[in-house]
């Protein structure tokens, strides 16, 4: 089953999600909804960590799924304005 998700493809998505995580940490969160933003960021970081765990075990399908959940949390937070990011390459938001 791992032949559908290559290590190279998985690494590509790890890099994209890591870039999104780093951008959120750099740009910050909406202070009025800080608790919600921090909760969404925490969930994303947990799924990202899970993805690394599964990838290390060689379970690329589950790792890819966890990465998608991680990025989904980030994207949702960006879309709702919890995170101060404006990058349509990484999130479904308008560019600055």
What is shown here, in short?
The protein is mostly helical. It has helices at residues 7-27, 34-56, 60-79.
List keywords for this structure.
single chain; mainly alpha
Describe this structure as you would to a colleague:
- There is one protein chain.
- The chain is mostly helical and 96 residues long.
- The protein contains 3 helices and no strands.
- The mean pLDDT is 94.
Q: How do the SSEs run, as a string of H and E?
A: HHH
* Silhouette: globular
Quote the distance from N terminus to C terminus: 41 Å
Helical stretch tally: 3
Radius of gyration: 14 Å
Counting DSSP E segments of at least 2 residues, the number of strands comes to: 0
What is the arithmetic mean of pLDDT? 94
Total domain modules: 1
Question: CATH top level?
Answer: Mainly Alpha
The amount of helix comes to: 55-70%
CATH superfamily label: AF1782-like
How is the main sheet built? none
* CATH A-level architecture: Up-down Bundle
CATH topology value: Substrate Binding Domain Of Dnak, Chain:A, Domain 2
Please outline the helices and strands:
Elements: H1 7-27, H2 34-56, H3 60-79
Helix pairs in contact: 1-2, 1-3, 2-3
